[in-house]
Design brief:
Blueprint lengths: L1 E15 L3 E8 L3 E7 L18 E8 L4 E10 L8 H17 L7 H14 L6 H15 L20 E3 L4 E3 L15 H12 L12 H18 L5 H9 L1
Parallel strand pairs: 3-5
Antiparallel strand pairs: 1-2, 1-4, 2-3, 4-5, 6-7
């Protein structure tokens, strides 16, 4: 068996048998990886506290013929603040579920991992509303996966000078000349459009550096909710629970 070290974040854990866990990680080197943490449910296991969701670190594991087995882990960040914040934790679980939905094995998921890490850091910042963090995360993960809307010019004719409405169905901005048959058009406030442009074009490290007024946040939430409804074909359990808490 080959020993490898992967850097990443735990997305989920599932009990297996009496003492083991199946762990899903998003890693820098190999995208999404499933591994077994044998004995990690025993009280004296060195893995008991390091294979929980939100844990970010370096995971040493053996590569078998058909699976990985975690041997040890060097934790870089537990994001322990989320364990003391019910709302923050469920936002975090939702973000993990979305990353799990999009990530693929043996795929380059470095940008998604960076997004996930910076998003968890933002959740521990009391100066950024969780609802805004959700909007930023959703729009950016859609963009990373090639589903981000066109927010710089008309999707039909390319007109950059004049945009009338935003259409989820059309995939972005539509100018006044082309907007005649649009049925789902939303007239975006200039600050809403600028925020969307900033989110789509900025590096992940610079995403969580701004705030918006409540009315802009409401419009951003409306747009991202529609986009996620269009592109994501499943419901997330953590989001259902979160919505009962809000």
């Amino acid at each position: 068996m080959n020993q490898i070290v992967l850097t990443g974040m735990v997305l989920s854990t599932t009990p297996v048998g009496e003492y083991d866990r199946r762990v899903v990680l998003l890693t820098k080197e190999q995208g999404k990886v499933s591994a077994f943490a044998k004995g990690s449910r025993r009280p004296n296991s060195p893995l008991i506290g390091v294979v929980n969701p939100f844990t970010f670190g370096e995971f040493t594991m053996y590569e078998g013929r058909s699976s990985y087995t975690i041997q040890s882990a060097k934790v870089i960040n537990y994001f322990s603040e989320l364990r003391e914040d019910v709302l923050g934790a469920y936002y975090g679980f939702y973000f993990l579920e979305v990353a799990n939905y999009y990530a693929r094995e043996f795929n380059d998921e470095l940008e998604m991992l960076k997004l996930l890490y910076q998003t968890m850091r933002a959740l521990t910042n009391p100066h950024i509303p969780d609802a805004l963090i959700r909007c930023i995360y959703e729009l950016k993960i859609l963009t990373i996966n090639g589903q981000g809307p066109q927010v710089f010019q008309c999707v039909n004719c390319g007109n950059k000078a004049e945009t009338a409405v935003f259409s989820v169905g059309r995939g972005g901005l539509v100018c006044g000349t082309c907007a005649g048959e649009v049925r789902d058009g939303i007239r975006l406030a200039p600050s809403t459009l600028y925020s969307m442009q900033y989110i789509e074009s900025s590096k992940v490290e610079h995403l969580y550096t701004f705030n918006v007024k409540p009315e802009i946040l409401q419009q951003l939430s409306k747009v991202t909710e529609r986009l996620m409804g269009l592109y994501v074909d499943r419901k997330f359990k953590s989001l259902e629970i979160l919505e009962t808490l809000l």
